[in-house]
Design goal:
It is a single chain. By secondary structure, the chain is α+β, with helices and mostly antiparallel strands. Helices cover about 35% and strands about 15% of the residues. The chain contains six helices and seven strands, in the order αβααβββββαβαα. β2 and β3 form a beta hairpin.
């Protein structure tokens, strides 16, 4: 059993002893743990399909319990959260961080992402020769001589 699994088991036991709510709406929970600025924004995110609970798309009124995995898409990246505490009221940032386990992978740095290939406006579609040069450029990886590839016949 990993430390994350142990945290979830411990959170389930604590929730059973606390006698609080058995479940909370997913939009309320996202708002209360400060993932979104307002409940209406959380509801809109659910309706747009940006929230998944245990792998299934969630409606705003879907209930979550301790141990559920929530994937929330924000700014083009997924946040992977595991519910550790059920909150119905918005709390401070330090208390909110204790209510979930963040399993989100680190975002890639801009240097790791491939650069966008830019063509002059009005240049039209690339010719067959240009397209092949662009394909070689994409396949070459980071250590390439761009001038040599674009100047080849």
């Amino acid at each position: 059993m990993t430390s994350e699994d142990a945290q979830v088991v411990q959170a389930r036991l604590a929730a059973a002893e606390a006698g609080g709510p058995a479940s909370v709406r997913v939009d309320v929970w996202l708002w209360s743990v400060r993932q979104v600025k307002s409940r209406s924004a959380a509801t809109a995110a659910c309706k747009a399909g940006h929230v998944r609970v245990n792998g299934a798309t969630a409606k705003p009124a879907q209930h979550v319990v301790v141990g559920d995995e929530i994937r929330y898409r924000v700014a083009g990246f997924d946040r992977d959260l595991v519910v550790l505490r059920l909150l119905t009221k918005r709390v401070g940032a330090s208390a909110a961080r204790t209510a979930y386990l963040d399993r989100t992978a680190p975002r890639p740095s801009p240097l790791d992402a491939p650069a966008a290939i830019v063509r002059d406006r009005g240049a039209g579609r690339p010719t067959k020769k240009e397209r092949r040069a662009l394909d070689r450029l994409r396949d070459a990886g980071p250590a390439i001589d761009i001038e040599r590839i674009l100047d080849e016949p």
